[in-house]
Design brief:
Blueprint (H helix, E strand, L loop, with lengths): L1 H8 L5 H25 L5 H24 L5 H25 L7 H19 L5 H32 L3 H10 L1
Helix pairs in contact: 1-2, 3-4, 3-5, 4-6, 5-6
Length: about 180
């Protein structure tokens, strides 16, 4: 994210275009990393935590920059950041209490893709992107809310269905 921040904040010609190039590079390499990890069966528990966290930090950084410069609305920034924070906290709770790390859901991946499109369109500030940005913004919000509802449902299902890892070790200790 450092190059994105650098180019976004540096007053040079086409600074935002350079920042977008680095964002696109990050998205492509992240997708390839995930694809090859699954293909080669190189997925790890730590990777299941670090990769989504890095994505959330990257998106959050760009959201804050665009909000600061007035390129996106406050309400959109709140939806994006609050959803990511709540999903991350829910994931930590599941890991600590149940010993489970759940993968991202497909609507969540589509939501993040549309958020990325929205942020790129906002960064570019080209008038001919405005209609695409409005469409992408609408789809982003719908997918963010839909995927969040699915995350909440899955969180409660897992919390109810599987035993706490601490309670099973306490039962074993008492026997």
């Amino acid at each position: 994210m450092a190059p994105v921040i650098y180019f976004f904040l540096t007053p040079i010609v086409h600074n935002r275009e350079y920042a977008v190039l680095f964002i696109l590079l990050a998205v492509i390499t992240d997708a390839l990393d995930g694809y090859f990890a699954r293909l080669l069966r190189q997925e790890s528990e730590i990777g299941k935590i670090i990769d989504p966290l890095a994505d959330k930090i990257g998106v959050g950084t760009v959201v804050v920059l665009l909000l600061f410069f007035g390129d996106i609305s406050f309400w959109f920034a709140v939806i994006v950041i609050l959803r990511d924070v709540l999903i991350f906290i829910g994931g930590l709770i599941l890991k600590v209490r149940k010993g489970i790390i759940l993968p991202s859901n497909l609507p969540g991946k589509f939501a993040v893709a549309f958020v990325a499109f929205t942020l790129v369109f906002a960064m570019m500030r080209y008038h001919f992107f405005s209609l695409l940005m409005q469409f992408s913004l609408f789809v982003s919000v719908v997918l963010l809310l839909f995927s969040f509802a699915l995350y909440i449902k899955r969180f409660y299902t897992v919390m109810k269905s599987s035993p706490d890892i601490n309670s099973s070790s306490q039962k074993a200790d008492s026997q």
